[in-house]
From TrEMBL:
<feature type="domain" description="Beta-lactamase-related">
    <location>
        <begin position="27"/>
        <end position="91"/>
    </location>
</feature>
<dbReference type="InterPro" id="IPR050789">
    <property type="entry name" value="Diverse_Enzym_Activities"/>
</dbReference>
<dbReference type="InterPro" id="IPR001466">
    <property type="entry name" value="Beta-lactam-related"/>
</dbReference>
<protein>
    <recommendedName>
        <fullName>Beta-lactamase-related domain-containing protein</fullName>
    </recommendedName>
</protein>
<dbReference type="Pfam" id="PF00144">
    <property type="entry name" value="Beta-lactamase"/>
</dbReference>
<dbReference type="InterPro" id="IPR012338">
    <property type="entry name" value="Beta-lactam/transpept-like"/>
</dbReference>
Amino acid sequence: MTRNHLPGGADLEEYGRPVFAEVSYAGIGFGLGFAVVEDAAKTKSLTSKGEYNWGGAASTAFWVDPAEELTVVFLTQLLPSNTHPIRTRLKQLVYQALVD
């Protein structure tokens, strides 16, 4: 469920381009219902291998990062969702606030 199910271990970048997403699809696979990080370096964002996530039309988002023992659910109603990089900024703030 939380592993990449795309043929040959491909990433989403090989299947399309992000129209409404705030980030590229490089290094991102697809599990059963959500994106799965396969290569954290390729994503060029703060993340861990094995993180799974998805975003909604009105800027909603969730992600689970097992490596950091982190779960985030963000609910808002901002349309269109690509007007402001709110999800990207939220992720930056959350990861910058982590203390080991």
